[in-house]
Amino acid sequence: MKRTYRAYAKLNLHLDVTGRRPDGYHGLAMLMQSISLCDTVTVETLPGNGIEILCGHPGIPTDERNLAWKAARTFGYTGGLRIAIEKRIPSGAGLAGGSADAAAVLTALRDMATPAMPDDALRAVGVKVGADVSFCLRGGCCLAQGIGEVLTPLPCLPQSYAIALVKPECSVSTARAYAAIDATELRRPDTAWAIALAKCGDWQSLFPLCENVFEQAVPLPGLEQARAEAMRRGALLCRMTGSGSAVFAVYPRDLENPEGILRALEGLGGEARVYGPLERGVKEVCA
Asked: Which residues are catalytic?
């Protein structure tokens, strides 16, 4: 049996680290949005009981270090499995590529082995795999709290907006980014008001409030200049996503000349591409 899925990336429209918890994790308050950038994940059942991961992208592990492998084991599947991952979501970017792949594997195993399993139960398994996996299973737009696993669905970013995205050549270690957060006296964003605006879908009022506190702790060279130029060219929001290093700009889809925004982001290094917001995190590719 074989099933293929698109595993969609996420953006943090707003990201606040609210403090360190007693369990050692960091408390978060984030506005997360799925976008059309995706990996393609094919899951095939095989005789035996091993897990084989196929991925030709350099730097992507194909053993138990891969979240897709962990997802299969956490789901409890004990048969043989081949997981083929066609990578488009860059790693070390803050786009949850590994979590998206894990979400696709969980969805495939649920659909093939236990199709009656409710979505909430599947997301509960996802939390055990990784903090972003639960969101990647749900997709759309959500307020994510706790360590990212407590999700409140919100109105989706409308299709009237487009998203330019660039991944600079540098990558950011999530562990090092959180260590930098702990060592930085953060300027607090108005997260409560941002959440209130997001709940009623007031995007025009929300965009100016959106921040990412990792930008204070992990400065990305050239970001302020790129942001200023992108905003001058018509962007409504320009931020780093997650702990970095990808940077995105949201702008009206009917903007007369969006090329200036792409060129501004490309000043950070890399090729900027345009994506759209989505209302789901995983979608099966029908044969």
From this structure: 10, 132
Query: Which helix (H) or strand (E) element contains residue 163?
Result: strand 161-166
Helices 119-129, 97-113: crossing angle, 10 deg rounding: 140
CB-based burial of residue 155 (10 Å sphere; 0-12 exposed, 13-18 middle, 19+ buried)?
A: middle
Q: What is the pLDDT along the chain (287 residues), one digit of tens a residue?
A: 899 999 999 999 999 999 888 888 899 999 999 999 999 999 999 998 899 999 988 889 999 999 999 999 999 988 999 999 999 999 989 999 999 999 999 999 999 999 999 999 999 999 999 999 999 999 999 999 999 999 999 999 999 999 999 999 888 888 899 999 999 999 999 999 999 999 999 999 999 999 999 999 998 999 999 999 999 999 999 999 999 999 999 999 999 999 999 999 999 999 999 999 999 999 999 85
Domains recognised in the chain with CATH numbers: 2-155 (3.30.230.10), 161-277 (3.30.70.890)
The reported pTM is 0.96
For residues 134 and 149, the answer to whether their CB atoms sit within 8 Å is yes
DSSP letter (8 states) at residue 197: H
Kindly state the DSSP code that residue 142 receives in the 8-state scheme.
E
* Burial zone of 256 (CB within 10 Å; 0-12 exposed, 13-18 middle, 19+ buried): exposed
Chain centre distance of CA 19: 21
Burial call 265-284: b when 16+ CB within 10 Å, e when fewer: bebbebebebbebbeebbee
Amino acid at residue number 36: S
